[in-house]
Amino acid sequence: MPAGMKPEEAGKFIQEEVAAFARTSRLNRMPDSGDDFIFDQPLVQFADGDDPIFSEYKTIIDSAHLKPREALARTYEKSPGDLPARLFVISWILPITAKTRESNRPQKTVPSRLWAYTRWYGEKFNGALREHVVKIITERGYLATAPFLQPYFKQMEKDNGPSSNWSERHIAYAAGLGTFSLSDGFITERGIAHRCGSVVTDMPLPISPRTARTPYSNCLFYVNKKCRACIPRCPAGAITEQGHDKKKCREYMHDTIGYINQKYSVDVQGCGLCQTRVPCEFRNPAKKLQA
Known about the structure:
Structural class: alpha+beta
Radius of gyration: 19 Å
Order of helices and strands: HEHHEHHEEEHEEEHHEEHH
Strand content: 5-15%
Number of strands: 10
Shape: globular
Strand order of the largest sheet: 1-2-8-3
């Protein structure tokens, strides 16, 4: 980024770099198809690295959940107080293509081949994208880290199921990219079928506002109690009107992972059935109600 670039220009620079990487990287292609994309054009927004919501996540998620300042400090082995005064978080959504979503709609017990590939190969692309964003920022003299790729990233087992010390969905919420759902997914303007990622930096960026009235504003169940489409879609019976049972979900995938590995030759732990053949699959179904 040239010296003197304004935050708005820097934000556009990052958005264009993420979009270009998604268009050109061979990692964003299905392994058995030369031209089929894994993800559509990304959505990219930005959060204030010291937004109070990151402190709230220590209560909402776990006390071990890292603030952006803590994550950047660990990466560079510094004290959080020794970092620049302003930090920012880049968050992106990688929407899953229509072809893949359509392939998963008829499934009732396990994911389709394309969905399984998206979960496995698509996350490899997501990791490469994280590395790319860090690289283009540090080459311009700024600090940057992708917490998900760092040695300090960890997943934790809690009484109510697994969690991590850096939740990409919660980072996306902080950046105003969407809200949560009854199924524990994250509903964006491009729907719930996606992967997400993030990078923390001191590169000055424009802050994206959070416009949702509540953390569940995009989920029809919480808006008017009329939608329960994800409940019967779950083969584990892990989704009810009380929410998503992470332990039931994990146990079901543990029981079927061997079959999935053998069938698709991938290491995958997500069926995605609750993210397809539902009103929020590829759009924000509550948008018209919010108008």
